[in-house]
Records
---
Amino acid sequence: MKDHLISLPTDLVYRVFNLGATSLVGSEYQGQKDVMAATWVCPADYDKMSAVIDSTHFSRKLIEQSGKFALMLPGKGIVKEALTLGSVSKNDNPDKLEQSGAKFFYMDNCPIPFVEGCAAYALFDVIPEPHNEKTYDLFIGKCTAVWADKRILDERGHWNFDESTDHLRTLHYVSGGHFFAIGESMDISLD
Amino acid sequence: MKDHLISLPTDLVYRVFNLGATSLVGSEYQGQKDVMAATWVCPADYDKMSAVIDSTHFSRKLIEQSGKFALMLPGKGIVKEALTLGSVSKNDNPDKLEQSGAKFFYMDNCPIPFVEGCAAYALFDVIPEPHNEKTYDLFIGKCTAVWADKRILDERGHWNFDESTDHLRTLHYVSGGHFFAIGESMDISLD
């Protein structure tokens, strides 16, 4: 899995998330781990992301306690696993991760589980903003590392899908199990 | 144009923007009008949206002074107009709107220009958050009205594209004129 990943500069993290795809949010604190899905995730700067993490989620405490979270872009090949990770709460099922059907791997020196089959992965340090967190469940993170699958994303943060990488197309969630995958590429010139 | 629009409940505005598409941001103050593009736009609640509006943009002052903004989802049929509205600043060209190639229309009792060829339109009142606006250029708006093109979005906020509405597929911007349109629809069940 890691063989396909290249590291990008942290100030290109916005390019990875500009497509507006649904993300998986990973977290860990003192051995407790969770991965949930979040659609309300958005660049806040070239090297920062915002994410709405509801106060009821198991992940919320892990993120608050560790001050860290990961964002991943699940590809359409793992849409069912992504929906499961977004539908089942670890509050209700402590074995959520093991039973999700998702496969996990770890990057060096990072205890947060990464899900196989994502287009990209990024790590963030929470920038403490208590008012936003309390009022809007809104967390802002500064990127500390970002990796992308080099088969679809190059060092400049440019995307390119073909038949062999169709399973990595980003997912865009509406509700009730209803998704779209990202589609046709267009390069527009204004001359 | 208006014939195709249906009004949705404001607490379904998140469904309209869940796809994570690039938006057009409309604004008006005392007769001055602007429309810019923004990719860093995201639901913040069922009836709220966040939008990053850089302090250098002409639109920024109009939004700050009026306390209102509109978000629109340009379809792929107006990708060139959307890129133009996002590339040219009214600071540099006062005739930006007239020369953009975009066509405009107005909803009753609203002075903000709406761009023809969008999948959906929504109006917001700014919730004043001076720290976010100053530190992150981040504005949070509460939805006061939302309309969608009924050929592709139904009253429940469910999307459906076909050949006849292909030009309304949402746009997802990367950078440098490089876009994707939203693609294949998938309905996933977890039995």
Note: Chain B touches chain A through 50 residues (CB under 8 Å).
---
Amino acid sequence: MGKRKLYMGYAWFNDKQIGMMNEGLNILKGNSSVDWDNSYRPLEHQYDGINVEDDPSVMRRVDWQDETVKADEDALRDASAGVFLYNPSEPDEGITSEIAFLYAIGKPTVLVIPDDDKTPINLMPAKWSTAIIKLSELEHYNFNKIFHQTYHGDIY
Amino acid sequence: MGKRKLYMGYAWFNDKQIGMMNEGLNILKGNSSVDWDNSYRPLEHQYDGINVEDDPSVMRRVDWQDETVKADEDALRDASAGVFLYNPSEPDEGITSEIAFLYAIGKPTVLVIPDDDKTPINLMPAKWSTAIIKLSELEHYNFNKIFHQTYHGDIY
Amino acid sequence: MGKRKLYMGYAWFNDKQIGMMNEGLNILKGNSSVDWDNSYRPLEHQYDGINVEDDPSVMRRVDWQDETVKADEDALRDASAGVFLYNPSEPDEGITSEIAFLYAIGKPTVLVIPDDDKTPINLMPAKWSTAIIKLSELEHYNFNKIFHQTYHGDIY
Amino acid sequence: MGKRKLYMGYAWFNDKQIGMMNEGLNILKGNSSVDWDNSYRPLEHQYDGINVEDDPSVMRRVDWQDETVKADEDALRDASAGVFLYNPSEPDEGITSEIAFLYAIGKPTVLVIPDDDKTPINLMPAKWSTAIIKLSELEHYNFNKIFHQTYHGDIY
Amino acid sequence: MGKRKLYMGYAWFNDKQIGMMNEGLNILKGNSSVDWDNSYRPLEHQYDGINVEDDPSVMRRVDWQDETVKADEDALRDASAGVFLYNPSEPDEGITSEIAFLYAIGKPTVLVIPDDDKTPINLMPAKWSTAIIKLSELEHYNFNKIFHQTYHGDIY
Amino acid sequence: MGKRKLYMGYAWFNDKQIGMMNEGLNILKGNSSVDWDNSYRPLEHQYDGINVEDDPSVMRRVDWQDETVKADEDALRDASAGVFLYNPSEPDEGITSEIAFLYAIGKPTVLVIPDDDKTPINLMPAKWSTAIIKLSELEHYNFNKIFHQTYHGDIY
């Protein structure tokens, strides 16, 4: 019935991450407990419409840096929960920073990992997430009930 | 119209508390401003499905303790507000800790007391709750408007 | 579809502020992304129903002061976001305090300014708001997506 | 060398609590890692110098209630850590609320219990405290290093 | 004995504010409970050493705005308490925003006002400050004990 | 004069990280603004004295995981600031999570990187740190003044 407005975090720095991002977003779009339209996806929000792929030197500008991190940080404030598409074998410090920030300001997080990636997960993202689920569970996961689940995979 | 997703706190350590819990939950279930299905009730969420009544010694295990408090803490993060079923004459440190946590992370709380329990309430749960209402007011309380009400009963 | 429950902040200490308040509230009432009924407007909530205009000396009572600030503070906890009707040329320390509080507890804010008021805005309310919009944009602003916008007006 | 400025919490509603308070404060005064003079003890700070024992009806005044809880809350903000003198067999909702508040705003807590009180402790104060120590350990406890200790007593 | 590291806030937009700033800073420098050297004073920290008085157009640059607010915000995180030099008759939204931020992240604040300025103070800075003192009290105020004081001047 | 009590974060999962850890800790020990004895170093605090190198299977136990993350989290609450020894070319999600947590609860962070590691840094740890300094600057860095510095290296 209700639909949850999410901060959708992911990485896009290599093919494996991009694969996870695309597959995960596609599933999230079809999940009936997700308010897809109002959820936030970082790549859809560029500072003043600037496309860094056209000119990567923009990333060296202090204003680009400040406004980009602020946009993400503000979106974490606007969301009612976070969902992160994550490969344990491809560490991503952006995702894990965002999980920690949400945890500290009192919002829940779902960490989604591939079904077949058995790489141990760092203690902090593992324990500061509310639930860690497999990609195959994402389609039917009920985001209106982000309750604690004990993770029994490897953690380091 | 909208329905609010709540953290429903209560105590169950003596008959009076269990009476308050059962009566209160029953009324909350019928309150049209409450999203009963997605609200959190601690007793419905046991660590790895372990029932401590079958084996109370489990409560001495550090993992049971850590995972149980974490489940409640995460549910406080997931909820948009708290409601607590409370007998002033039967102090409960769990309920009052949860009210303080919600207050500090910026979420409102409704404290529900019996109509006929005139026991003074401790200053902190009394003042860190957003509103203190009588059980008889619970049925029609609008959880979409948890606004401050000055409590005029005894406080100590 | 969804409607957002807001803390609606404004000032009413001179005609210009009252004009902004009335015009802004009227537009907010018609905005289809706003949950007008459940949103909080400070002037509709007076401590124990006391009207300070009948007896301004009430404002010197410590209980009036404490209960009034608490009502606003609790409403900031209850809201899912803030909207403030603000004239840059008429500084208001209440509005700017509330924006800072929301920012620190992890909730987003929309600051609404008149179309023709070019007065520079103080850095803190300007940068701790999620978006600064013109009054003419308020009617169609989608409060379900309070995302960061870079403000390009004057700041001091 | 350094001395830590503490919020010193305790209860004084029965003889056992008063005994614990007096004994604990006396030891804290002699602990060389404690900044006794600048630490906060609630009973030394009464609203406008009013002594409620002279006139208990004062406690029904809204201003007394608001100012008293505010004084404690502000002192929690001022302290760099908390220490609580606590009998598990004499539950106290004030102490446990204050532990929860400190936990949520990011400050550590030491919970001090009598050597011979084996009563189980509620999960929240037990797990949201940084360390639980015996009264006999208080004299030499180093408050400059309030690090996590796993409690192995009973918790419920 | 100990000395407290403070965030020292003030305004400098008119002569009255500059007078208050200079007088207040001078007294703070001589207060033996203040760690003057390690305390933060905004005007001593300019983004990349840029002096906006040489070129006020710098203030329109997004990077200047972002880095300037970030420097102040980070200094609020670094401080253990705040002190603000403030004329009630000259409202300042920067000062009041900073008080609200400190309050929400759990740090105390001392608001210093001139001895002869009887202008009512806005409820939020008045009530979210831990203590409001007169300029004549500043010299001997003990910043190691920033405890709640009830303000009995006018508030609106 | 004063010395600051720090949370000292680092990684130890490969030789480069261990090199950075050892070199950095050695310098911190000699920095006269650091309270070395009371600062927290994760490797010196193992759950119940268990050495996971003796039996790595311990890391699969839920109690080990919960108590280990709780020890670090509590130490972040106990510290007055954080310092992290970090190689940008060796991402570490633990360090970056801890920076984000400190940022959200209102404490400052110094991120220390090698002089010759030009790898771009992720936006969040880069911008949520208060200052990013080179290892060669660590010896004389004044931890009593952790003020914002604009980083001009590469960020992504």
Note: Helices of chain C lie at 15-30, 62-78, 93-105, 123-128, 135-138.
---
Amino acid sequence: MARRRLATRQRTTARPAAEAFTQPIFAYAPGAILPEEKIEAIHAASLRILATMGMRIQSAEAREILVAAGAEDAGDDIIRFDPGLVEEKIALAPPEFLLEARNPARSVRLGGRHAVYSSVGGPAFVSDLDQGRRAGTYAEMCDYLRLVQGLDILQQEGGGPFEALDIEQERRHLHLHHAQATLLDKNWQPTGLGRVRARDGLEMAAIALGTSREALTDRVVFTCIINSNSPLVLDGPMAEGLIEMARHGQATVITPFTLSGAMSPVTIAGALAQQNAEALAGITLAQCVRPGVPVVYGAFTTNVDMRTGSPAFGTPEYAQAAQISGQLARRYGVPFRSSNATGANACDAQAAYESQMSLWAAMLGQAHLVNHAAGWLGGGLTASFEKLIIDAEMLQMMAAYLAPLEVDEAALGLAAIADVGHGGHFFGTAHTLDRYATAFYAPLVSSWENHESWEERGAETCAERANAVWKARLAEHVPPPIDPGIDEALRAYVARREGEIRAGIDHPDQ
Amino acid sequence: MARRRLATRQRTTARPAAEAFTQPIFAYAPGAILPEEKIEAIHAASLRILATMGMRIQSAEAREILVAAGAEDAGDDIIRFDPGLVEEKIALAPPEFLLEARNPARSVRLGGRHAVYSSVGGPAFVSDLDQGRRAGTYAEMCDYLRLVQGLDILQQEGGGPFEALDIEQERRHLHLHHAQATLLDKNWQPTGLGRVRARDGLEMAAIALGTSREALTDRVVFTCIINSNSPLVLDGPMAEGLIEMARHGQATVITPFTLSGAMSPVTIAGALAQQNAEALAGITLAQCVRPGVPVVYGAFTTNVDMRTGSPAFGTPEYAQAAQISGQLARRYGVPFRSSNATGANACDAQAAYESQMSLWAAMLGQAHLVNHAAGWLGGGLTASFEKLIIDAEMLQMMAAYLAPLEVDEAALGLAAIADVGHGGHFFGTAHTLDRYATAFYAPLVSSWENHESWEERGAETCAERANAVWKARLAEHVPPPIDPGIDEALRAYVARREGEIRAGIDHPDQ
């Protein structure tokens, strides 16, 4: 125990000097793995799907909006899209936008050369090494948010790390948003499921920013995940959420879950054609609601394990699909969203190599929004405290890799090489002493000890060290300041809406 | 125990269909992270280092060869190189070559679009989950070689996975080569330390191929690692090994160990300028010995932990340096060697994410030879049985990622999408049934089970599954056929040389 405490103290005082709130910038060229004519073939196939099959859209309002814009009502809730309509609407989407946070210093640009890393959102379970996987509580969820707030490499919170199952489902989103709006001063994601919840998110974001829901239309505060129900269905709650967000000028992240072999063809090319069709349909709807509203091209194509039918993540096929999705999004000039996904159930080597496959594909595809960038475990059913730390390390490493190398006379260091001479060493040279403190990436959870020191400290695995790191960070956590008036207004909103929900009253502004 | 046996059987019968001896092919463009003018700046800086500082070369024969070619003897064992001489000699190196194996079906191309993955070579220790880290024996080393032989993703054995400490050092290389030549039918690396050992390797490779040492000059059977002693020293045994190999037409892999902050400047640009100078000096020497002999540009620049002075691996700086080294090697039209390195002491998440950083940098840098591609642990001091399996999985995944995606009418699958319709599933369609068996990468050690099944099977980590995998593979191992006459001739050679070594007689052909 004494040893653990010592180790923890040493680690936290050695916190990376480079840790500071910044955005990774794409300075290198993106990686294209399909030639342009094959990207065009996928594009053309998806337009054919939209023109002939169309999408089933389970919202009368959405269908009306699309038909008014020139889409064809094919009956049975199916809307067919003329290629010209799709091309025209997609061209309206901006290539990048400012995404505002409660703390203006933590507002970020999304799109262009700017990337945003977002923490895990939506799992049913929480896990840590002490208690294993379990249903989560509101108090634990708040702890998770505090860690997300403290990790500067996460520029956005991803929409609630796991369900707080000690709060009834109907009013859970209110408490989530209260926690997000007060425990974080960085941007956070809302829930896009249905109009009522979308509107509660908008109201609470407006309160947190000291403005009104109506005034939000001129500022982007949300990237709201909208999933199609593959194949080729946009369900009612998702369509409502999309419309509500777009109407308020907020960004929707249109993300089909085209699981190759199950909800889309067993070929990755076919899965991508279908993904592209569903994404373009959602983007078209958003642009019909409000021309020029920010949208993000979301991709989540992966494959199933054909023996069991369950999804696999971070596979070679997943990496190819993510990178090609980036090529498609660039073709449309729309920001691109990918993920950091793994099917592993433990914070072990598999979790890391599948996450790395996902992250490198996101980086090479130049994903502007990496959703679930930190904390995702077990195919997305679990938010892990240790994985949060391990992923943060991987993200920090990727950001450091993305920082362009200096190559000037001083960096080339020929004078130092001449000073040291043949067979010497550089430890004591002025060139080294001037730079050593910030020369290299300093790790968060990696052990660079030799085997003997590592054994002496207890031969901890990376996951065990991550356990100590999150506990130490939580113990040292400094909450971001919040205007007491804003906190009070948020509490009052939650109380009022809980009363309405208990009384069975829908959102008053419906 | 019964459960373990069952799990093992299931895993091994599910061996990837795709597992077969092939070479990864670079079909995508390499990743350039430095603009061309900065590559030229590094190139120019390294030529200045060679022209002004030169290299200390601790072999009179090597110095004579270089001076005869026009280099300047600056006294004190230092040779200075005129830029014109370096440029002229480097231009002689071939961009790719055939590397022969005992089994001709396992000969490989090295360079151009072809990659070779090589198993770990050189560690002092062996480790597995059962016994931890320890000094290794010859019997254990043979088991390791059997696993390397059986893993088709490893196209080459990397020069002895760890030291067999139950054999005296002076004659250890003879037994290593006997094991390599008989337990493997794929290509293997020799030791390049000193003329005597280099010549023993050549003699034994010749016997294994049914030819003579003299006749090897027309066939490449070796890629021999030659490390400079940074900064700017090529020691005697390495210079001798280089000359001996080049004289016999064999490929040398000139690899400076430019540890940034210790044996090279604390700036990665400076470390790369020095690496490039040392690599070009070695390549120049090889081309002076035998014009047109294959050489490989080796890179191993990484950084130290500035708090302890010990080396770190798979860091952001390492990844940048590896990728830029690929750019430099492409500038010279010389094949490029990188590595799969990690500083982790356990087969945990850190081992995987540092290895992935190394492997993606090698892939993007288009490393034609990935040395230590499988099995390396603990900063290269340990060869791990479990890491061998985990790395093989990562390499197989990378090779699958590198296989270009089919995008034709059949792959786009529009007919299947039309058949399934809105909200259906693709499990039973003809399009799926025709392809499902080979559609996706099948894992070697990853678990894609859901949490419940994974827990029921014992909640094994990836390292624990890897432990079961290598034992099962060893139990099922089928050795490659070997001509008894060749085995006999190799044994006779080892016996004769052991006698000579005991009697203090140097290599008879010296």
Note: The mean pLDDT of chain B is 94.
